[in-house]
Amino acid sequence: MIALTLLVLAAGCEKDTDCKGDRICEAGSCVSPGARPPAPDADAGVVVPPAAGGRAPLRAGDGEVVPKPVAPPGPPPAPPEPVSRVVGLLGVTAGLLTSGDFLSGAVGATGSVGVRFRSGVGLVGVGLIDYAPLAQSNVQLYGAGPGVRFGNRNQLTLATLPTLAVATVKVARTTVTGAAFAFTFLAQGSVVLIDILALFAQATLGVDTGGGVTFALSGGVGLSF
Hints:
Layout: H1 2-11, E1 24-26, E2 29-31, E3 56-58, E4 66-68, E5 84-99, E6 102-117, E7 121-133, E8 137-151, E9 155-171, E10 174-194, E11 197-208, E12 213-224
């Protein structure tokens, strides 16, 4: 019996009766009942912290860890639009001009430059030159004034321009030149075709101090920025 006891002590235990007192046999060793480790929950799986590569693991049974691929980060967000920026349009025009009892073709130039705000509305300075040649006379208009611009690349501009109207008339062998002050109301719309190349159309209505009315309708091509 003594030899059998020594053999059991050397080999550990095989069943609870091999242990003294109220101890029980657990994994070949005698342990107190309160020291039994909790049984692992096979359904809970094994959770490990994320690996250094940014791959988040999933819970899996039987100690298996299944990594979950993480989508690569998307492109950085675009920078916010500035509060304001410089805008403008420079171009040449061709169209028709009428004043009083005459109608003539007219050529000219127009330009605007100013600031457009984030809301899409801008304040610009507008200038125009119109030249209408006739057989015995010609009319020249020079105007500049403030305007309001709506839109970004494609835009609509409304402006009121103090204008100097100059008329030159040939009478026999004499040339008579007269000038009058006028206000010109301008409406201009443009569409950008390629990069900064734009097509535009504009209408102007001028009223001078003598009660004369001048109307012009023209189209043009120019550079928009």
